[in-house]
TrEMBL record:
Keywords: Signal. It comes from Armillaria luteobubalina. This is Uncharacterized protein. Residues 1-16 form the signal peptide.
Length: 171
């Protein structure tokens, strides 16, 4: 009798639970505070002052027990909700991030400084950037970058990503 009452109560609870949520994978990652980018390196050239374009590279960390393969990243970065840089990059060779490991992107050229080069100089001493909105097309559970489950992870946000700046005076 007691078991029957418990079973009916449990069934009623399960039946009244919402069938779906409006949470995306990005919302879940943000909610858990799992930052996927461990560092950013920005290369500034003399041309940057005229073109408002820099080159970047970043390190991705994978906290999961499955391999991730990044195919495309669209991101905006800045400080205190002010966007200073944005880019949309498709990897010619997808970026494979091993199980519980890290991977360095190749250099991503022509990242736009949305506030202009002069205004962006003020953020260099801070040594960090916030990822304001990042969308990633990836494949999860790949095997050496092959196969996998395609996922579009949208709305990723991350605060205080360590950022270094390098001045390149060469051609």
């Amino acid at each position: 009798m007691l078991f029957g009452l418990f079973f009916v109560s449990l069934a009623a609870l399960v039946r009244s639970a919402p069938a779906s949520t409006d949470l995306s994978i990005g919302d879940i990652i943000n909610g858990l505070g799992i930052g996927l980018v461990s560092s950013i390196n920005v290369t500034i050239t003399l041309d940057t002052l005229v073109t408002n374009l820099v080159d970047i590279a970043f390190t991705v960390k994978n906290p999961l027990p499955i391999e991730l393969t990044l195919e495309r990243v669209t991101s905006s970065a800045g400080i205190n909700s002010t966007e200073y840089a944005s880019f949309d990059h498709t990897f010619s060779d997808p970026l494979v991030v091993p199980i519980f490991g890290t991977a360095d992107s190749d250099t991503i050229k022509n990242v736009l400084l949305t506030q202009g080069a002069t205004a962006s100089l003020a953020i260099i001493p801070l040594g960090f950037l916030d990822l304001l909105n990042t969308d990633v097309n990836l494949r999860a559970a790949t095997i050496f970058g092959q196969l996998g489950i395609p996922l579009n992870v949208t709305g990723l946000k991350q605060k205080n990503v360590t950022t270094t700046y390098e001045l390149s005076l060469g051609t």
